[in-house]
Specification:
Layout lengths: L1 E10 L3 H8 L8 E4 L3 H9 L6 H4 L5 E8 L5 H14 L5 E8 H7 L7 E3 L3 E5 L11 E5 L11 H13 L5 E5 L5 H8 L4 E6 L2 H13 L6 E5 L2 H4 L4 E7 L2 H7 L7 E13 L3 H8 L3 E9 L2 E8 L7
Helix pairs in contact: 6-7, 10-11
Amino acid sequence: MDWTEICIEVPAADIDSAAAIANMTVPYGIYIEDYSDLEREVLEIARIDLIDEELLKADRDKAKIHIYIDPEDNIDEAVSFLKERLNAADIDYTIDLSNVREDDWLNNWRKYFKPMPVGERLLINPSWYTDTDPEGRAVLNIDPGLAFGTGKHETTRLCMEALERYVNTGSKVLDVGCGSGILGIAAVLLGADSAFGVDIDETAVRTANENARINGVGDSFTAIAGDLVDKVTEKYDIVVANIVADAIIALSASVPRFMTDDAVYIVSGIIDARADDVKNAVKDSFDIVEENTLGGWYCFVLRQKHQTVTD
């Protein structure tokens, strides 16, 4: 059956806020065309200065967000939601709809996904690239399929860089809203003893477990479908959640029961306009030990507050 592509064009300056809104409409990710900083990004990621002529002609003042809607889902509802949120955020936009075959859209975004170093020790490698030189980095082969998580988004990069700093040999890691499994798998490749992922979307869980198998860590990483409180029973040294601000706020009361005494809680998916909301929501239960930002997105590393008992 044909899927529906929703293409949203917004000013490049508003792309982060618009993308945060777009990510709320589907559980399996979006892709973005943003050429406002094309030359620097190509040099940083690909280390070349030769850029396709068609890309150089692209409008640097505009950016496009592509969303794909399952034929069983309500297209009108998705469009209405987008319009309401974009208007509330005072973002200028145009929305175009078109039909696209499922096989076409599943592969369409692949041309934008290239091997990419993250932090000091990891290389994110699309599974269809078979001759990438890792240059001494641990290679995380990923095929996100219908699940969110290629490693390209700023929030995923921030989480992976934080994992690099906090994962130790023997660490047990919990990935809340695991998507493609990229963070849990990265944790194992960085030395964690095990990682456990939970996601409400069954498609994401299937993708995450397949990515674990592709990376040879199927014995150390497992993902299951369901709600955090219903499906998780153990305690973990690191809990990571790359979701959205409202979900992080909602989870702040439940997460401590799944953390060891010295555990860290790494949270991202937080657009700059919501950073203070998250800080206020967690301040009674957590201390912020790190605050990192990239491209208008925030990542906090938190530790539980421990009350001192006195006689």
